[in-house]
Amino acid sequence: MTDVLFYIVPTVFVLSIVVTIHELGHFWVARACGVAIDCFSIGFGRALVSWRDKQGVEWRIAAIPLGGYVRFSGDENAASVPDQNDLSAMKRAIIEREGEAAVNRYFHFKPVWQRALIAVAGPMANFILAILIMAVFLVVIGNPRGQASVREVQPNSPAAQAGLLPGDILLRADKTPLRGAGDVSAYISLRAKMPIDLTIERAGRIQHVTVVPALAESRDDIRGRVKEGRMGVVLASVSKLEKSSLISAIPDATVEVWNMVKTIGFYLGRLVTGQMPADQISGIIGIGHTAGAVTKASAAGAPDMATMALRVFVSSMLLIASLSVSIGFMNLLPIPVLDGGHLLMYAYEAVARRPLRADFQAAGFRAGLALILGFMLFAAWNDLNRYDVFKFIGGLFT
């Protein structure tokens, strides 16, 4: 039961924070644009608790705490962008029911630029959340700064073939500065079978070597079995924590978040082009396992409850920041069900000066929904394989 709580509670907490902030982004910008809003829900399904604010918005906490949504008044079309005929019918119904002045309060009759702002506000809220969390940690804890050096080179490894030697100091990978062993591992892991220009310092001289990391499989308690680039070295890292000032914290955190966005985009590009194995895609099971494993690792060895709570809180916040960037990025992809898909439709409407036909919208919505559901099932299958669930189940019957 304790193990179950270690995995379920952190997963619900992390996902609830990330999704709620995402939906609040839509909500705040929609309210600023004067959009009529029916409901804001944390979770799905039956409402456990609900109340109405002064503007008539129903706030609810629902039974399934794995998401949430904001529902605008009149938002009944599956693709959330009705065509011209639907708009005319909706407008007549609103006028008959509430009068002509009420039309401008409805999302679908707002200028296209306002609807685009509302759509992009969710992902932007995720990025802002990550920046704020990172800024706090950069001020309070700091970022590792230092150098990574080669302690050992494994025989017949890519590093050995490239000519790396013990004692080499790794300065840059391609044009990216390396500030410690963590930077080296993160850069190499995404670039299996890609030539990398390493700038090194050897005996006081700057040299360049080209290494091509191999795709290797490994396992750890947090990520399970993973396949990533390895060059076959043991690194030593000498670094210190460099704190940001209150003035520089937000810019520094923005750079960190932007680097995370670039990393996700680079990794996704390699997946789409088949340069990385698709079995590395992870989903909700992987998020849950990571949240639970990080929580357990943070709590282990704590001398008292206060220290354990602090460690768990810190690790959870960092996980929220990372997941928030991922959710924000993925929601900007031009898939009809996602915010990026809505932005694509608004771009068409802005150019053509009319909404996309309803049958095209419905077809796009169905295709996008099928793609997302297929992706979720594929990711769940990968997660079950990555954490050897099928091997465990098979072992029960042998």
Automatic annotation (TrEMBL):
Every PDZ domain range: 135-204
Transmembrane spans: 6-21, 28-49, 116-141, 312-335, 363-381
Membrane topology: Multi-pass membrane protein
Pfam families: PDZ_6 (PF17820), Peptidase_M50 (PF02163)
Highest taxon listed in the record's lineage: Bacteria
Predominant location category: membrane
Keyword Plastid (UniProt): no
GO MF annotation terms: metalloendopeptidase activity
Cofactor(s) needed for function: Zn(2+)
Subcellular location: Membrane
Keywords of this entry: Hydrolase, Membrane, Metalloprotease, Protease, Transmembrane, Transmembrane helix, Zinc
Keyword tRNA processing assigned: no
Assigned GO CC terms: membrane
Family recorded in the similarity comment: Belongs to the peptidase M50B family.
PANTHER family in alphabetical order: MEMBRANE METALLOPROTEASE ARASP2, CHLOROPLASTIC-RELATED (PTHR42837:SF2), REGULATOR OF SIGMA-E PROTEASE RSEP (PTHR42837)
Protein name as it appears in the record: Membrane-associated zinc metalloprotease
Native source organism of the sequence: Caulobacter segnis (strain ATCC 21756 / DSM 7131 / JCM 7823 / NBRC 15250 / LMG 17158 / TK0059)
